[in-house]
Amino acid sequence: MFLKILSAFFLPGLLVVWFTRVTYNRVLALVLTVALIAASVYKGYTHSIWLIVIDAFSLTVGFWYGDRMEQKLKHTSTS
């Protein structure tokens, strides 16, 4: 259970950041990550509401960081 909680804290946020770097679109990155989490919930890998809440928190942090990263890339490319 500890490994699932630790993974829920870091993996969704890292996936959003990685998909943002790959697609150059943070909204698409968020949608792709939510789809992966929804598939894992559907398959039964997420058993607790707390894991879903932690996933949502991690998604929010990853989305925020992806936004910062995207703004920084736009700022450096126009300079």
- Helix percent reads over 70%
Number-wise, the strands total: 0
How many domains, in number, for the residues? 1
Radius of gyration: 14 Å
Number of helices: 3
- Low-confidence segments, ≥5 residues, pLDDT <50? none
Transmembrane segments: 6-22, 48-66
Organism: Niallia endozanthoxylica
Protein name: DUF2198 family protein
Keywords: Membrane, Transmembrane, Transmembrane helix
Your description of this structure?
With 79 residues, the chain is mainly alpha-helical. It has one domain. The chain is 89% helix and 0% strand. The protein is built from three helices and no strands. Helix 1 runs antiparallel to helix 2, helix 1 runs parallel beside helix 3 (49-78) and helix 2 (26-43) packs antiparallel against helix 3. The chain is elongated, with a radius of gyration of 14 Å.
Précis, in short:
The protein is 89% helix and 0% strand.
Explain the layout of strands and helices:
Blueprint: H1 2-23, H2 26-43, H3 49-78
Salient structural properties:
elongated, 89% helix, mainly alpha, transmembrane, 79 residues, DUF2198, single chain, DUF2198 family protein
